[in-house]
Write a structure and sequence with these properties.
Strand order of the largest sheet of chain B: 5-6-7
Oligomer: heterodimer
Distance between the termini of chain B: 30 Å
Order of helices and strands of chain B: EHEEHEEEEH
Shape of chain B: globular
Structural class of chain A: mainly alpha
Distance between the termini of chain A: 43 Å
Number of strands of chain B: 7
CATH class of the domain at 1-59 in chain B: Alpha Beta
Radius of gyration of chain A: 22 Å
Chain lengths: ~270, ~160
């Protein structure tokens, strides 16, 4: 199962051009949903207005080199390791989900566009990455959804209460999980059975919900959060700091503060 | 004025939900970020502002210490044990303050005042409070504020 390209097997019944068209439509849905989200929430307008305001209250001008180095550092440290979540379970679950999703999507695109024909041989690396990415996404997403959701964890809401904010994570888990089950059933070569077809339909529907629901879900936070992190670090460097006070310069006279307890009182 | 959350900075960690004494900081059902669900009930205690690790919560200060159009922001640095405040007035004037985090673990560091020396009359009459300046960790005389540093435009 782990070394078999499920799309190559599928291409024996469905022409690969359909699979490729499906991927293009999904990318189109992401773009459309994000643009609608930007227009409706006006968050990009807010973001640029904020950047302009920050520039006015900047105490020093940043050179291009410095700017590039800050952006690179933010991409590697803040975005690549999701450092703003601090050290803890939320960050590990988020990293599992994030890198799992990236692997799952990249491997899907590569396998569908380059190896989705019965004549081509897929290097075993791509199916392994696809399955590993799906497993990581399911683990990270389920860990988050069952144990780390704030409305459940901090507000004592029951775990089975589903809200709109769950649309993204549930669709993500469903896509990866149904993809894995479909791939497994398909690898069993159950001729004449309907099992794998049913899960293929579930996989397609969950993909449609995930990518078609960008406007209603938290999908676009994947694009906004990196932008906000870059702006935050640029504002720290140019002295505007979003009006925050500078870092304390004489802390030694105060001694160590205590680490407050993590919120877990409910 | 009540608190509000910068959605671009909030990561939905729930520290403000946990600390709010009025139980009005909640998680938004659409974007799972913190929000003040009932601004009228905000005590303006600044607990959430100080608890937020991402400096995502802001609150407009009282009009009696800064007229409208100002900004009051807080930076908590637990590793240094400090809380820094910055008040930026609408005319651009800035005031920066740094204070120690004085929170102590529950049940520890109980001052045993009965075992200490009784203050003499001179100490009672003094402007210096009990355990000052040692308790401030400064080992310096208390700073004196000159009249010239008082609020501009106010004459005594």
């Amino acid at each position: 199962m782990f070394t078999i390209n499920p799309f190559a097997v599928l291409s024996e019944t469905i022409p690969s051009i359909f699979l490729q068209s499906f991927v293009v439509v999904m990318i189109g849905l992401i773009i459309l949903g994000t643009v609608m989200d930007i227009i409706h929430k006006k968050n990009v307008k807010y973001f640029f207005n904020n950047a302009k305001k920050a520039k006015k209250s900047a105490t020093r001008e940043l050179g291009t080199g410095e700017r590039v180095s800050i952006i690179a550092k933010t991409v590697v440290y803040d975005i690549g390791t999701t450092s703003e979540l601090g050290a803890g379970k939320r960050r590990v679950a988020h990293l599992l989900g994030m890198y799992g999703t990236i692997l799952f999507w990249v491997a899907s695109v590569v396998m569908i566009f380059f190896y989705a024909s019965s004549s081509s041989t897929t290097p075993s690396l791509w199916p392994i990455l696809w399955h590993a990415g799906a497993i990581m996404t399911v683990l990270g997403g389920a860990w988050f959804w069952f144990f780390l959701r704030l409305d459940v964890y901090s507000e004592a809401q029951p775990w089975y209460r589903i809200i709109q904010a769950d649309l993204f994570v549930l669709a993500l888990i469903a896509t990866s999980l149904f993809g894995l089950i479909w791939s497994y059933l398909q690898s069993l070569n159950l001729d004449g059975r309907w099992d794998d077809k049913v899960f293929l339909v579930f996989y397609i529907v969950s993909n449609l919900v995930l990518f078609g629901g960008v406007y209603w879900s938290k999908f676009a936070h994947m694009f906004y959060k990196p932008g906000a992190a870059i702006q935050k670090n640029l504002a720290e460097a140019d002295g505007s700091r979003d009006n925050l006070p500078p870092e304390a310069d004489a802390p030694e006279q105060f001694g160590m503060g205590i680490k407050r307890e993590a919120p877990k009182h409910y | 004025m009540s608190t509000f959350v910068y959605m671009t900075r909030c990561d939905g960690c729930g520290h403000c939900v946990d600390i709010c004494p009025s139980d009005i900081m909640h998680i938004d059902e659409t974007i799972r970020r913190a929000k003040n669900i009932e601004p009228n009930f905000c005590w303006e205690c600044y607990s959430c502002v100080k608890a937020c690790p991402n400096h995502a919560i802001d609150v407009r200060g009282y009009a009696d210490f800064a007229p409208m159009g100002h900004s009051v922001r807080v930076r908590r640095e637990e590793e240094k044990g400090t809380i820094s405040w910055r008040i930026k007035f609408r005319n651009g004037t800035e005031k920066n303050f740094v204070s120690p985090i004085t929170t102590k673990p529950w049940g520890k560091f109980i001052p045993k005042l009965a075992e200490g020396d009784k203050p003499n009359q001179g100490e009672i009459n003094s402007q210096i409070l009990y355990n000052e300046p040692e308790g401030l960790n400064t080992n310096k005389e208390l700073p004196k504020v000159e009249k010239s540093a008082f609020k501009k435009g106010v004459y005594y």
